[in-house]
Amino acid sequence: MTHNHLIDRLSQTHHLSLDEFTDLLVHRDESLQTYAAGLAAETVERHYGKKVFIRGLIEFTNICKNDCYYCGIRASNSNAQRYRLSEEQILACAQNGYELGFRTFVLQGGEDPYYTDDKICQLVQQLKRNHPDCAVTLSIGEKTKESYRRYRKAGADRYLLRHETATPAHYHHLHPQTMSAENRYDCLRSLKELGFQTGAGFMVGSPGQTPEDLARDLLFLRELQPEMVGIGPFIPAAGTPFAQEKAGTLDETLFLLSIIRLMMPEVLLPATTALGTIDPRGREKGLLAGANVVMPNLSPKSVRNKYQLYDNKICTGEEAAECIVCLTKRIESVGRELAVDRGDNVRYTKQKEDQYCV
Ligand code: 5AD
Ligand code: FES
User: For tag attachment on the chain, is the N or C end more exposed, with fewer CB atoms within 10 Å?
Assistant: First the structure.
């Protein structure tokens, strides 16, 4: 495989096969990666200019009934100190965030049975009443299609549910037998059908993952066409079966960000907290490789360090206001600007307009 051959493939991500994607990942080197990042940066600028969208992440419960092998808040991790935010606390986080310029709130939590559909719907409605110009994103795991329908009716705009891996056998390596890969993929298809701006995604370098698995993740994304894709390196978490495993790498994650940007030019692609955790300038490097979203934490300081999906998670100390100052500087350091904007997917918006304005 010549270098030129690989370079050509970067402009053909719309129709590469499983083997071709696998080759690309296996033959990654510094020059290929730099080239991919350059193309990805041009692509994102063409669709979104220099804007970087911010999402206010409210981690409202770390209680989870699931037991994913990689996750620090899994049910059987007895070291995790559990918490739930009250409705008042959640609304106060959002109010604070609004004043700081956030126009999207992401309610993220473990699969916590305390938060029934009624409670979630009430929360969404209240958030939308308080902030009609904001988008509300839910990230609360696998639910029935009926539940998803109720959330949508209550006003939720977006939903994040990483598929984690598009290879069922690998999925079973990462999750207990009680969880099913098919159900997860079905959830994502339901979310799309219900008209959510939908986010899928996966960890890079998770235990047992092969380059072919990653290539399958890319094909999965290309088929599903989610509006958002969240990827970050796997980072071992204390108190989990994978505590002693190796972390995913910065470079592989950056390369995948670039490929995803090239394959899905309009996608909303965060430079994730996990990326910032494995490298002090990880998020900035993510932005330079094609990302256009950052998701700082709006949760109260007192619970920040308790939402530990993995070890050494960053930004567990500062107030949201301090975070935003620091983040603005980081975004500007790579020639970009922070947008006070809902930051909808431009393709989704266009499809909606076409639907209603014919
Ligand atoms: N390392 C990196 N990412 C993780 N996540 C969960 N645990 C870890 C970990 N140890 C990711 C999963 C999940 C998202 C909320 O966080 O992909 O979907
Ligand atoms: Fe909470 Fe997997 S352990 S979703």
Answer: C
Please count the other Cβ atoms lying within 10 Å of the Cβ belonging to residue 179.
16
pLDDT confidence bin for 245, thresholds 50/70/90: very high
Residue 66 φ/ψ, nearest 5 degrees: -90, 170
Mean pLDDT, range 175-200, rounded to an integer: 98
Q: Work out the mean pLDDT of the chain and round it to a whole number.
A: 96
Provide the β-strand partners of residue 251.
none
Would you say the C-alpha torsion 325, 331, 337, 339 has a positive or negative sign? Answer: negative
Q: Of the ligands numbered here, which is closest to the C-alpha atom of 110?
A: 2
CB burial readout 109-126, b (16+ within 10 A) else e: bbbbeebebeebbebbeb
Given a contact cutoff of 8 angstroms between Cβ atoms, the answer to whether 70 and 242 are in contact is yes
Reported pTM: 0.97
Nearest ligand 1 atom to the CA of 247 is 1
Candidate of 203, 206, 250 to mutate for ligand 1, largest count of ligand atoms within 8 Å of Cβ: 203
- pLDDT band at residue 13 using 50, 70 and 90 as cut-offs: very high
**Residue 93: strand, helix, or coil:** helix
- Taking the centre of ligand 2 as the mean of its atom positions, its distance from the CA of residue 275, in whole angstroms, is 20
- Whose structure tokens read 């980081």? 330
Tens digits of residue pLDDT in 118-146: 999 999 999 999 999 999 999 999 999 99
Mutating to test ligand 1, I would choose from 70, 174, 273, 279 the residue with most ligand atoms within 8 A of its C-beta, which is: 70
Domain boundaries, the chain: 3-357
Beta strands in 55-196 (DSSP E): 56-61, 104-109, 135-139, 158-160
DSSP 232: E
CATH tag, 3-357: 3.20.20.70
pLDDT in tens, 22-59: 999 999 999 999 999 999 999 999 999 999 999 999 99
